[in-house]
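Field reference: sequence -> structure
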Amino acid sequence: MFALIRQDRDLRVDFFRGLALWIIFVNHIPGNWLGLVTPRNYVLADATETFVLLAGYAAGLAYGMVMDRQGWAFAASRVMGRVFTLYVAHIFLLVVFTAQVGYSAERLDTHAYLDELQLDPFAREPYRALLEALLLRYQPSFLNILPLYVVLLAMFALAMPLMRRTWLLLGASAALYAATRTFGWDLPSWSGEGWFFNPLGWQLLFFIGCALGYRPPGGGAPLAVPYRRSLVVLSLALLAAGVVATQLLYFRWDVAEQRLPATVARFLAGIDKAAMHPMRLGSMLALTYLAAHFIPRMAAWLRGRAAAPFVLMGQQALPVFCAGIALSFLGRVAIEVSDRWAMQLLVNLAGPALLVLLAALTAWYEAEKRAGRRGAAASAAAGLAAVPAAPGAAIPLPAPARGDSG
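Structure field:
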């Protein structure tokens, strides 16, 4: 496993992205006992916020370098190529998930799955549902993260040149966020209720990640928030407030309604996830600040056995995410058959083990492709050097092989 992990990256990013993928798998299984210990029960931020922020960081880092070397047009074309890949992955996952849930509902003689996962439109209006799904206007439950990512990357392709003027990028993003929350802007959906994850609100978190990931050319200093004790205290206070709000909002709403002032109760009720409420945004940024300053980039434990499965999954995020959605539904069916400790143990060991295995196979395949490209380049260079020069012509020298930077 260790040989498959690429060490030329910030392993903190890969570790937390892999951890987010594991949390998504756990949280998508109703009745899973491990769901009681995931962050959504304790802070106003969860795996989705982590995933979006780190996606922005990776985009700013990777595509920012491509833009600075080869220009905005080429970099934007690379981003749109990734958008297409994500769109195809979403449609493939939609087909697999719909077939999986529909078959299970028929075999178990229950329509609860279709209603709860919002797949019943395929039974009522299958052709219209398929069209709306292709247009991303219809997103069943658990299938709304990739459409969000598709739109955010498409917005990034247009806004990419603004990374060179970081504060202009963040200012424009913050203005769009404020207008979205003030005027209720959203993208259209088939139901008329807007997107489950409103890209016009979530884009601020994504572009903050882009600004943190971008490395200016010529050795310029990237955006960074320096260590300050006051900021540490502020971050901890914000997280503490989020813990209290989470408990009241999701577990003790009766206390909030009966004992808190009406204005406070209304504020708590308004903490939404759809358009990234400021409390959720602040909680995610507080967690990021603390992690960035208290977890060194070269921390030894990131290269240890315990972290390796999460790092490997984080480096192969797309296939692991898609497989995790399908496996989580199988885990749900299994736990509904029996929720005793033996089945809980089986689901929570077998599911992640399969995800790690998939990540390992994907990493191995990518490593073989890179090795093949390097071998082909070396063979071409050797063949060029072996060609005899014409009389009086300069002897061509092979260029040094360029290391893979993907």
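Note: The CA atoms of residues 60 and 214 lie 5 Å apart.
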